[in-house]
Every structure is written in C-alpha cells, then in structure tokens.
Amino acid sequence: MRTLLVLGGGYGGLALVQKLLDSHLPHDVEIILIDRMPFQGIKTEYYALAAGTVADHDLRIKFPVHPRLRIRYGEVGSIDLESRMVLLSSGEPVLYDMLAIALGCTDNYHGIPGAELHTCSIQSMASTRETFLRLNNVKPYGTVNIVGGGLSGVEIAAELRESRPDLNISILDRGERVLSAFPAKLSRYVEEWFNEHQVQTVSHVSVSHVEADAVFNGSQALPGDVTVWTAGIQPVKPVQQLELPKDRSGRLIVGQYYNLPDYSDVYIIGDCASLPFAPSAQAAEAQGEQVAHILKALWRGDTPRLTAIKLKGTLGSLGKNSGFGLMGKRTVMGRVPRLLKSGVLWMSKRHYG
Fold first, then answer.
1. Phi, psi of 186 (to 5 degrees)
2. Residue 347 has pLDDT above 90, yes or no
3. Mean per-residue pLDDT, 250-266
4. Which of 28, 130, 270, 348 is least crowded, fewest Cβ atoms below 10 Å from its Cβ?
5. Nearest residue to 226 (alpha-carbon basis) of 234, 217, 215, 239
6. For residue 277, is it left (φ>0), alpha (ψ between -120 and 50) or beta?
7. Count of CB atoms within 10 A of residue 54's CB?
8. At a CB cut-off of 8 Å and minimum separation 6, what does 265 contact?
9. Are 40 and 73 in contact (CB under 8 A)?
C-alpha cells in the first residue's frame, strides 16, 4: 500500500481528504490523517469562543469515517523529508510515500520581549479555551487590550463588547486605522461602530515589550488586566524548522502543483504555502481541493490541469447583528454581511459535518 499522510485536519487538510474520499481511490492508496484534536475546530469562529458567545461544542466538525482513512491523534514534532518520516512529539515515527502539510499557523510575536509569555492567543482551540477563561474572569470595569487591528482583532473586540459590556476594551494598532488592508470606507464604518459601542482604538502603537499588566508603546505603559495578541501569524514550528526556500513570511516556496521543488511528493497547503494571496480558511480549502485534483490526475497517469483560485471575498462580524465585507472591489456593511457570514458558517458545517 502507498500511504498519503495528511498533517492537519483544518480547512485545507480536511478539504483534501474529503475530496479524495468522494472519488474512487486507487486500490493501493490509503490516507492517514494526523491531528492533535479528535475533530476539526472552526477556526474562523474562535473569536466568539474566546468572548464567550458560543460554546466549544458548536465549533466542532467530525472527521469523516471511511475504510480507506486512518486517523491518528498527536502533535507533529518534526518532519524528515529525506527519510520520508514524520516524528510525533511523543517520539512515535510515521512513515509516508506522499505527504501533504496542512498544519496551519501560529502567532508571530516579532521577537517582542514578553509578548508570548504575557498575552493570550486564539490560534488554536486549546489556547482559545484559555483565553476564554482569562477574559471572562476579568473583574467588572477591568481593561482588555487587543494588540492588532486586523480582522481577528476587530472581531474579538466587537464580540467581547457584546459579551462583556462592563469591560474597558482597547485595540492597539501600529497603523493609522484598523483594518488597514481594507478600503478606508470600510475602516471608517468599523471605527464608527467601535465609537458607538465604547471600544477604544489606539493608532500608531509600536509595541516595544509586554508585561503581565501592561503593553508598552516605547516608554508609555498601556495598562490592562488581559492582553490578547492578534498582531501577525507565521507557519507552525515544524515548518519553520525545515531548511527550505521560504518567502518573507516564512511560508514555503512551492511549484505549480503546490509541491516542494526538491520533493515532488510533498504538497504544502494553506498557511504554510507561499501563495499570491493572504492566508485564509477560504484559500486553504480551495487549495486543498486542487491538490486532491492534482493527485487524482497523477494517479490516473494524466497531466493535472488547474484553474486559478478565485476567492469570493472576506466577511467580518461586529457582534451578532452587524458586519462588513469585501466582495471583489465592492464593500458591504451592516446586517447583510453578518447574515452572509452566518450562512457561510452553516454551509461549512453542513458540507463537512
């Protein structure tokens, strides 16, 4: 039997597995999926879990059950491409013939002293659970600082405002405005929502270091009971350790079929791959499906034919009743994009569940 080993059961890895299982696998191919959790966590909604507005159970999707699929639970420790072996953190080796790395990302602390030690994360289900406990244990009238005014920072700030109206909430961002990657019109709408809901946005904050009770903008202390970090991502540590060509963000350079130039049977999916668009669940899912198409074509002895990935846009929430989005070049704001995001979540659960 030939083994296709899939590392990570997130959006990209699960899309790959699901697409392959929906077709006729070659009789000599088996799939092994390795993940640290016994289910897929809906990462795009972790901000709501952290804020306490949804339950852990609501953000789980069961892995598929299939006679040609084996699921193993564990943390990936390292990847040995020369030996075609993955070593789990427990020390257990797992051999493969073909490998798909879809391990996602982790926080990027940019070397800022104290950032990793003294801040909360929403990059994994485990860290988000801890963040939920810390945020919801803050005493009334306490202060929460959120470092980073991108999509994640905006969504957790808005959701926390609805969950804890008693808290003082601030978004600290190094740019001139929140959502700096989006059109100014959309940023202004979000800023207005924050003003109406007493969420403070502080611009031009260059975090020099972080302590247990404050974020420091140079010598200026910005006190807080809890600090949430949403100021950048990078590939997970096993990918960081691979001594291969990478882009400025640490993502692996891939060929036209998303495989490594020097290891043609190793495919990189999602946040670990250097792609011409920003990392997202939507991009990872689309790429996972394309890798499935590539593998099926190669197994048939055909040349894979790919079309360019076309992303449908970005949707964000401002609590449960308002939202914003960018659909192509068109900005959408208000209740409609929030309803659309809820619909996308429902469809995702239905598709994978």
1. -70, -40
2. no
3. 97
4. 28
5. 215
6. beta
7. 16
8. 97, 98, 99, 259
9. no
Quote the pLDDT of residue 342.
84
Planar angle of CA 317, 322, 323, nearest 5 degrees: 40
What distance in Å separates the CA atoms of residue 282 and residue 12, rounded to the nearest whole number? 9
CA angle 304, 305, 308 (to 5 degrees): 130
Give tens-digit pLDDT for 146-192. 999 999 999 999 999 999 999 999 999 999 999 999 999 999 999 99
- Tell me, what's the pLDDT at 353? 54
Asked if residue 167 lies in contact with residue 142, where contact means CB atoms within 8 angstroms, the answer is: yes
- DSSP category for residue 45: G
* Whether 290 contacts 283, CB under 8 Å: no
Q: What is the dihedral of CA 209, 213, 214, 219, to 10 degrees?
A: -70
CA–CA distances in Å: residue 19 to residues 13, 104, 222, 319: 10, 19, 48, 33
What are the distances in angstroms from CA 157 to CA 173, 193, 296, 319?
13, 11, 43, 9
**Do residues 275 and 287 touch, judged by C-beta distance below 8 A?**
yes
Q: Dihedral of the CA atoms 120, 165, 188, 47 (nearest 10)?
A: 30
Query: Any idea which residue has 């036209």 for tokens?
Result: 256
Check residue 120 and report its DSSP letter.
B
Q: What is the pLDDT of residue 328?
A: 84
Which residues neighbour 257 within 8 Å (Cβ) at sequence distance 6 or greater? 267, 291, 294, 304, 306
Q: Give the separation between CA 135 and CA 164, rounded to whole angstroms.
A: 9
Angle between helices 11-21 and 281-300 (to 10 degrees): 30
DSSP string, 290-311: HHHHHHHHHHHTPPP--PPP--
